[in-house]
Request: fold
Amino acid sequence: MDSNLIRVSAPFTFEPNNYLITKSRKSNRLSSISQKKPFTLSFKLGNNKARNGVAFDESAYEAERLSMDAKARDLMAETSKRETESGAEDDPKSWKWIIRKRIWDLMEVQNIAQNPRPVHHRIPNFVGASVAAKNLTGLEEFRVAGCVKVNPDSPQKQVRLLTLSGGKKLLTPQPRLRTGFFSVLDSSMLSPSTINEACTSVGVAKYGKQIGLDEIIKVDLIVIGSVAVNPKTGARLGKGEGFAELEYGMLRYMGAIDDSTPVVTSVHDCQLVDDIPVEKLLIHDVPVDIICTPTQVIFTNTTIPKPQGIYWDKLSPEKLGQIRILRELKGRIEQETGKEQTCGPSEKLPPMAKRRR
Reply:
């Protein structure tokens, strides 16, 4: 998703009519979300345990996920090495990899990292992640939220658990969007013995209800993973694959979120940095409004514009070819607008999971 073009192009976006949230700045805090409407979804798919008469194979799913993740990390390592050794000071990708590597190295050397390790080329798990999650769920923005979108990475597992145990609906993406789109889980669907498993990738596949682009959904809070984040500006770096940006852009298209939807990240204090140059951020980079660490809660008052949708000129043909939901969205937009959405340059990508009918 990285690109040489910096915040200049405009995306296609769907303008929602009934999903506005008010926001004010008082004492460096985001206001609570007012006049919440009930969260409603109409599910079209049955339980994943036995869809189309085929039982869900937990072991095969997890083995395939781990294999694909390993291949993706190997490719990210190659990309990082190539781009940081290019010597181009103004390369919009190389400076990001330098910061990421510094943070990953620091977390490993100081033993701040937690499993899965090593944390390189991951959203890094860290000592105190559960405390940061508790601080996050103590926010007024979390308290009033009916539906919370949370990334599927390890350091945010406790956030997912507290979301479900708090009686809220959890929206989470399929890992790398490789087998679908988003899944929604509700504590009413789960038993006390399954709620913890439901916070894992396998559990989401087993117990979650998949949704499509046509679902009527209102997301009140977004929780996003980070490798590094600037507490003064809200500028954020992920692990470098761009899936958080894709997920954000698709939710914008659906009318599920808008500029005022709070974006929160949970990180270790060592992941707070002051050298992410705002002027070098790309148009699709998602800034954060609130940062939760094990020791503090920071309201960034970010002024960085949030993405307005999918920026197709930042998306390679290869990534488009691997993600079915993106191809579906692109086709819809082209049909609605009568204009072809041109993709960006080619890139080398790892193989994705085989899609089972």
Summary: The first helix runs from residue 58 to 84.
